[in-house]
Amino acid sequence: MTLLTRRALVTGGALGAGLLLSGCDKLAQQPGLRRILFSGEKINMGLQRALMNRDALAPEFRPDQMSPVFRTNGNSNPNTADYNRHVAENFTNWRLKVGGLVDRPLRLSLTDIGAFPQRAQITRHDCVEGWSAIGKWQGPMLGNVLKAAGVRSSARYIVFTCADLWSGAPYYESIDMIDAFHPQTILAWAMNDKRVSVGHGAPIRLRVERHLGYKNAKYVMRIDAVASLAGIGLGKGGYWEDHVNYDWYAGI
Amino acid sequence: MDDPTAPADSPAAPPRAKNVIYRHRLATRIWHWVNAITIFIMIGSGIGILNAHPRLYWGQYGANFDHAWLDLRPYGDILRSGWLTIPAGYNLAISRRWHLLFALVLGFGLLVFMIASLINRHFQRDLRVRAKEIGPRHLWADLLAHLRFDFHNPDDPAAYNTLQKLAYVAAIFILIPLMIFTGLAMSPGMDAAWPWLIELFGGRQSARSIHFIAASGIVLFVIVHLTLVVLAGPIGEVWSMITGRWTLPAARPSEPPPTPLAEPEAAE
Hints:
The structure holds two protein chains of two kinds. By secondary structure, chain A is an alpha+beta fold. Chain A is built from seven helices and eleven strands. In chain A, the strands form three sheets. Chain A has a five-stranded mixed β-sheet. In chain A, strands 3-4-8-9 form a four-stranded antiparallel β-sheet. Chain A has a two-stranded antiparallel sheet with strand order 7-10. Chain A starts with a helix and ends in an 8-residue tail after the last helix. By secondary structure, chain B is mainly alpha-helical. Chain B has one domain (21-250): Fumarate Reductase Cytochrome B subunit (Up-down Bundle). Chain B has ten helices and four strands, in the order E-H-E-E-H-H-H-H-H-H-H-H-H-E. The longest helix of chain B is centred in the last third of the chain and has 29 residues, at 204-232. At the A-B interface, helix 1, helix 2 and strand 4 of A face helix 1, helix 3, helix 7 and helix 9 of B.
């Protein structure tokens, strides 16, 4: 074969690759194909749940394995009038509301939260972007708080509503009951043996250790047990899920 | 389809011409084309994901304030080129959707291909590396043959040459499994399900680095593979990967003929 046709082939190949790539974007716009593209989440979730014990623990680390600097990401200060007042008052008048499908709605102060049996864990925080940081978190198990509130059997999801506003609406996230009652799922008020800082989600940050960072909601103000995610936000179970199509199942 | 006596005189494939042989079994052909699409999507969407944090670390943790052994930010303009990533514009969520769906195709595809290739004896027959083949003298001779663009042993034209065999073995048994397992090791859910994964690779950020290195190996494999297909006669090679039937190249004369009358690939 001549050099000319070889060059034509290479050029054609490069052009073809470019066309294929833009073809991928066109395909992903078709509603039917988009559904297939988005079905990977359900398949991966099903496979992981099948491979994983319900209470399988995320790896925990020794103190000497902790990140020297644990960076912040997303919002690092809600900076609303209400939130700033709570910061100024050192969260003494702040209450965590626990409601929805529960028999006994709760309003918990930080003292109340500290009175629950505590769990401390040194775990790895994995951002969806790719970086990881290891830190120590402490707080009550979410499951115990939900039991104290008498969560009903009709509840299928737990929704966390946060103090930080994104385009005027509060950040929110949701997990299912398997993760809600997982032993490492805690409402952390302490990080690295100090009160959680404003940058990391004061006064309370959800730790749900088998998921990526964006599920670990900061600045949690309210916890609701619900039967369905429809009607909350745009219905996909979280701020990033609603607005940029992040997977609701963030175990991968 | 899977002819037990291939590659030599195969009864299931009555030769249309004396110089046509049955070379690629059905499982090989299906897996090849599924992978051609899958690897293409995995590389494009993988670069899209890498662009979210184009720094690589060793160990359990790694973020902006930690030491990165590789910082790709200076190459951000190239890595964010629309012709390189899926989707063309930066979108981490959609890159992840492509990557994590086709990761299933890659993983289960490899599993099915491996089982099929043990049953049809493709592995045992075509990919078993024999001790004498990896002796320095043999490898040197094979390298010289490559430099002459001489890729086929005339006595056993269906057999892979040694460097080719080693490249396939590296891709099938090392690179792609490494991609799959380092990919799984980055999943916080899988780290809970299979804690040994993270220990195997020495931490999630090490797994991420190895994922990148193995991906670079696959990119290199694809470049060399496509180059050699072009050099070996692209029409005949692609046709054989579609139909399984491959036309033997004309015997190579010791001296190049002064005026080639016909292109060897075109010979039927």
